[in-house]
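Quick illustration, no need to memorize.
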Amino acid sequence: MALTAPERAPHTGGGGCAASSVEDAFEALSAAAPEGWRVELIEGEIHVVPPANGEHEEIVSEVSGQVRDHRKDLGRYTGIGLLVPGASPAGRVVPDLVVAPKGSFSDALEYHAPGPAMLVGEVTSPSTADNDRGPKLRGYARSGIPFYLLIDRGRGQAVLHSLPTGTRYTRKVEVDLSQPLSLPEPLGFDLDTSEF
């Protein structure tokens, strides 16, 4: 099955059969997606995302490495699915990076409750930037994840969202890529974005 990115199923809103059919379509696309492709259900829409390019993965690796260098007690997870609330009964996303206490996702589940996540990180790509800046931001805020780090390659910025309330984060700190970005406690270090 050929997939293009992002493909979207129609937004169905409330519950009942329409929501169930979106869930069924999500399950079918997830099962049929080629290896390396991600299928996400965000605010009632299905998004199919191709594998990331090397530059994207280098940035994810660099952020993960800096977290490891400063906080060896924390786990850095890539490819972990999170359940995030939204317009559908169960939003399902796969952040580029999740930082949580080690052992937080040691079960066999594919998608996890977001409670242990201290920080989620996304690195924009042309096919994901709109979702990363909008629906995912709202979903992570609704989930109560304390920090959302967005490496926005299109805008040349690193953005740290914090203090989630409802569907938004009430604090936002932006720096140009190449400038340090302070990550408050419990992370407690300056992220060196000059490596991005």
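The longest strand covers residues 157-165.
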